[in-house]
Design goal:
The chain is mostly beta strands. It is built from one helix and ten strands. Bound molecules: copper (II) ion.
């Protein structure tokens, strides 16, 4: 009996670990074995706004070459305890950022740009300042069950401070490579 119980609790622990990778994505079951699409979503030119905290934005170009829409359902990063997917919205005549319901959709065979003034990844609850040149690891969990991990390099940017006022969207110091 003892042995059986021990085995059962190990099994539960294993399921919890496996389930963690799919958090927020209840419907995808066996897509982790679908290696064909492993590299179908690629992040380039990723950067994080250098900041003393408590929160800052993460940006980049995300290319989905899979032929089907894919959704970023959640994210994590090494610079903060909490990560949200944000969008800009007009609230009471002012542009503010808010959590994007349902995640960020990456349309099939196209590149989605995360940039100041648009959809972005938000590092919240930073435990230490992020200084220019520093690299932060970011992981995205996709609706396919895949995880995409990349490094974002910290850059100074005056573009859109955390409130992202509409008039702040003219950012000349960004090296737009698109
Ligand atoms: Cu934000």
């Amino acid at each position: 009996m003892k042995g059986l119980r021990k085995h059962a609790s190990l099994l539960v622990a294993g399921l919890l670990i496996a389930g963690g990778a799919l958090a927020g994505c209840g419907s995808s079951s066996d897509s982790a074995s679908d290696s064909d699409s492993a590299a179908s979503v690629i992040v380039t030119d990723a950067w994080i706004r250098a900041s003393d905290g408590p929160m800052t934005g993460i940006f980049g170009d995300i290319t989905n070459s899979s032929g089907a829409d894919v959704t970023i359902v959640s994210a994590t990063n090494s610079a903060s305890s909490m990560t949200e997917l944000h969008e800009m919205a007009m609230v009471d005549g002012e542009m503010v950022m808010q959590e994007k319901a349902g995640g960020v959709v990456l349309p099939a065979d196209s590149t989605t740009v995360l940039e100041p003034g648009g959809d972005h990844i938000m590092a919240m609850g930073m435990t230490a300042p992020v200084t220019p040149g520093e690299e932060v690891e970011v992981s995205l969990t996709l609706s396919t069950g895949e995880t995409v991990t990349f490094m974002a390099v910290a850059k100074e940017s005056a573009a859109g401070d955390e409130e992202y006022h509409e008039s702040d969207m003219d950012h000349s110091d960004m090296d737009g490579d698109m």
